Amino acid sequence: MAPVPVPLKDMKLLDVKLGQLPTWLAMRDFTPGGIGGALRRGYERYYNKYINVKKGGLGGISMVLAGYIVISYMWSYSHLKHDRRRKYH
Questions:
Q1: pLDDT single digits (tens) 53-67
Q2: DSSP per position, 5-70
Q3: What's the rounded Cα separation, in Å, for the pair 76 and 12?
Q4: How far is CA 1 from the centre of its chain?
Q5: Cα dihedral 42/45/49/51 (nearest 10)
Q6: Which residues contact 9 (CB under 8 A, 6 or more apart)?
Q7: Judging by beta carbons within 10 Å of its beta carbon (0-12, 13-18, 19+), is residue 8 exposed, middle or buried?
Q8: What is the pTM of this model?
Q9: Cα 48–Cα 8–Cα 40 angle in degrees, nearest 5
């Protein structure tokens, strides 16, 4: 039996073909409520996968810490790149 085709609106991003990408993006909800809902679903998915587990480890917390380090470096990069070539003598 052939698998039942999934409508483009219900497809995940990884299942969308490159030619279908503009149509798929046009179907997304870019209102403030839609963006907030997407952020909430992402947080709940992360929390349930890495934080709210029976045998927890440092994996979930270390990912948050690594993300914070990368974001803070990106925010301060414009200041840091000017200090690179400065001579201290």
A1: 787 778 778 888 999
A2: PPPGGG--GGGS-GGGHHHHHHTS--SHHHHHHHHHHHHHHHIIIIIS-SS--SHHHHHHHHHHHH
A3: 34
A4: 36
A5: 70
A6: 24, 27
A7: middle
A8: 0.58
A9: 25
